[in-house]
Each structure stands twice: as C-alpha cells, then as structure tokens.
Design brief:
Layout: H1 2-22, H2 31-65, H3 72-102
Length: 103
C-alpha cells in the first residue's frame, strides 16, 4: 500500500517540479502548486491501492455470478490443451509412420 501511495505522490511532485524546469523557471517557484499536485498524486495512489486490494475479490465474484461466460484464462487453458493434444497426435502419427517403415 505505502509503495503505491508514495510512488503516485512522488509522481505528482515530479510533474509539478518538471513543468517548472521545462519552462525555465525555478523548480520551487510556487510551493502550493507542488503541494496540490503531490496531494492529487497521493489521493490517486490511495484509490489505486484500494482497487488493487479488492481486484481479486471482484474477479472471483464475477466468476461466481457468471459461471458460463467464457473467461479469458479458461480460453487460454483450452488453447494450451489443444496445442498439447496436437503435439501428442503428431508424435503418435510419427511413431506409426516409423513402425510402418521398419516393417
């Protein structure tokens, strides 16, 4: 939590400092601007932290509500299963062809 909040707070401070430096002004020209942007960054970091914490629970709830919906991980698993079956089928066909050539 703290890492996310501090990262976004630092991003807000960086945005206000860098905008002054790009314009050729002193970095701490308007301290209230730094406070404002840092506060916005801290608040955004807090909201993102809350979203990250409840993200897994929301996903699990969606899966529970809609069991028949084709979710992406299920589709990925089916694709991997099909690829494994295709490789196995090709290996079996190669073994059959090798046995026929030996006879």
């Amino acid at each position: 939590m703290i890492r996310t909040v501090i990262w976004f707070g630092g991003a807000g401070f960086f945005a206000s400092s860098y905008s002054n430096l790009v314009r050729g002004l002193p970095m701490m020209r308007k301290p209230m601007m730094h406070t404002f942007f840092t506060s916005i960054g801290l608040y955004a970091g807090y909201l993102i932290h809350k979203w990250e914490d409840k993200g897994e629970a929301v996903y699990e709830e969606m899966v529970e509500k809609h069991k028949n919906v084709p979710w992406w991980p299920k589709a990925q698993l089916l694709a991997e299963k099909a690829a494994r079956e295709q490789v196995l089928k090709e290996a079996i066909m190669a073994d059959i062809a090798e046995e026929e050539s030996d006879e």
